[in-house]
Amino acid sequence: MVALTILANGDNHRTESAKTMRRTLVKATLLAGLVASVAGAAWAQTAAEAIAQRQAGFKAIGAATGEVKKVLDASGDLTTVAGKAGEISAFAKRMPALFPVGSGPESGIATRALPAIWQNKADFDAIAGSLVREADKLMAALQANDKAGATAAFAATTAQCGACHRPYRAPQ
After folding, report:
1. Which sequence spans correspond to the domains of the chain?
2. What are phi and psi of 169, to 5 degrees?
3. Nearest to residue 98, comparing CAs of 45, 52, 54, 46?
4. DSSP one-letter code for 172
5. Is the pTM of this model over 0.85?
6. What is the pLDDT of residues 37-47, one digit of tens each?
7. Which CATH superfamily is domain 46-168 in?
8. DSSP assignment letter at 113
9. Taking Cα atoms as reference points, which of 55, 54, 56 lies closest to residue 96?
10. By C-alpha distance, which of 120, 123, 128 is closest to 157?
């Protein structure tokens, strides 16, 4: 159509061509804006989901830790709570992925995660890895019904929790 307009109108082709380019530019700008707004909404949902998943996970491993402690304190059958140490380990493996950039306080969603997590991500991830290893040792000691080993492993596991909470979690 532009080619026909150019042939029919001679010099008017510049005007028609400019209109076509302007329409194309407007459409491209509108499309880019739509894509950006959808991407922004998707990111906000992703940050919200990450925060919700990590808060639920931390609550769950807190409860699991409490159950292990009760059985240890009561000198009960440690094998009954070995799975709880497995839950701690499994969540610790997922932890690094639950802290994507943009899911901290800047997200506008209530979170106790401090900006230091993203400023020192390698250290944060290393602590999560240490938690996995210590929780796995705890699980092995619990499965073996080894009270002394489980007590030591429990202390080492909870020490990793504290190693992360001190620098990376805001107080309540």
Report:
1. 46-168
2. -125, 130
3. 54
4. -
5. no
6. 333 333 335 89
7. Cytochrome c/b562 (1.20.120.10)
8. B
9. 54
10. 128
